[in-house]
Amino acid sequence: MPDITKIAHTNDSYLANSLSTFAGGTTWSQLVADATAATHNNSAQNFDEGVHNGKFQGRGTSNTWECNRSLFPFDLSGESGTVASAQFKVYSDNLGDTGTNQSTVFLTNWNALDGDTGDYDLPGTLTSFGSTTISTTAGYHTIDINSDGITAINSVMASGTLTVGLLGYYDYNDTDPGTSNEVKIKIYYANSLSAVWPKLELTLGTSGYSHNVLGVASADIASVNGVATANIASVNGVDT
Hints:
The chain is mainly beta. The protein has two domains: 4-204, no CATH class; 208-240, no CATH class. It is 10% helix and 40% strand. It is built from four helices and 17 strands. It has helices at residues 28-32, 100-103, 147-156, 169-172; strands spanning 4-7, 13-16, 18-20, 39-41, 46-57, 63-75, 83-94, 104-109, 128-133, 139-144, 161-168, 183-188, 199-204, 223-224, 227-228, 234-235, 238-239. The strands form three sheets. Strands 1, 2, 3, 4, 5, 6, 7, 8, 9, 10, 11, 12 and 13 form a 13-stranded antiparallel β-sheet that branches. Strand 14 and strand 15 (227-228) form a beta hairpin. It is elongated. The relative contact order is 0.25.
């Protein structure tokens, strides 16, 4: 069981964007690097295209690329401790293609949210905190957060907000999906019912004295001479 479960703030959001060659667009990369989205929504309960990557044939020889992202802020300012492991859980459903790439989403670092279309802008350095594949059965899908994500979490414990992005495979890798690959993931947000809220589950590391004492494992010792192990830096000069 996690020590701390945090629900995303209700200003979590999706940002939808598109680019057409008919209107002068040239590449998928141009869309991925766009600083603003066409649409920002932080009041939706869910959205069929919360994460969306695709290329679609349009008028004549034109094509339109579509790239949507979902963003989630978690307020950790009231928490304390050092996080050892963490999971991000998002209630979601794959409505698109079911190949591995088309089903894969990446959890990443993200900029603090301003609550407008400018939130679409990529961080200066995009870092994966982990990934998972989304099945065609609606339910919670879990991302085990990697060491980069744990570092980011601990950097704001007791002091700030962790904001993360959820991106499709072709968005994260800046690879044109072509017309035969569509990432289309339905995402549920914090404005929905509690049964489907986005969650960050944190497990804290152990603290205090971590060595055996007189042959007794530290995990079985609650205190030494009435002092809780969490408050013991050393015993007889031996550090934790």
